[in-house]
Specification:
The protein is an alpha+beta fold. The protein folds into two domains: 1-38, no CATH class; 50-124, Alpha-Beta Plaits. It has three helices and six strands, in the order E-E-E-E-H-H-E-H-E. A three-stranded antiparallel sheet has the order 1-2-3, with no helix packed on it. Strands 5-4-6 form a three-stranded antiparallel sheet. A hairpin with a 7-residue loop joins strand 1 (11-12) and strand 2.
């Protein structure tokens, strides 16, 4: 980029990036505003680990009881969808995919599983 007054390439940009920046020419001292478009990173960098949860149905007679326990344990989890769990139960699947969970949710879920005598398998999603 060049100064709009003297065409010098010696410019001072502000320390903090923004969409509209006041640029100063170090040669002639002229100040002018510039629209800036900084690239947004393609990959979202979360500070949390993400896990995929699974539950294996031990026997057909335990299906309803397990469903009720899971429903009470997982309510309030950000990405848990009860409708998907119910569909898997109705289809007669023996391994239910429970969805994705943040590490902080997994920490809260594990003690509840022990209390209700139920076991959920959590596998970390590696990116």
């Amino acid at each position: 980029m060049k100064c709009i007054q003297c065409s010098s390439e010696k410019l001072k940009h502000p320390d903090k990036q923004s969409s509209m920046e006041l640029v100063k020419c170090l040669s002639c001292g002229h100040e002018f505003y510039v629209h800036c478009f900084y690239p947004i990173p393609d990959v979202f960098q979360s500070k949390h680990k993400i896990y995929l949860g699974y539950f294996s149905v031990s026997s057909p007679k335990d299906t309803v009881a397990s469903f009720i326990k899971l429903k009470s344990i997982l309510k309030g989890c950000e990405w848990f969808q009860l409708s998907k769990l119910e569909a898997q139960k109705l289809e007669g699947k023996t391994k239910w995919e429970l969805g994705q969970f943040l590490d902080i949710e997994v920490e809260k879920i594990r003690p509840l599983c022990k209390q209700k005598n139920i076991e959920i398998e959590f596998n970390e999603i590696k990116e």
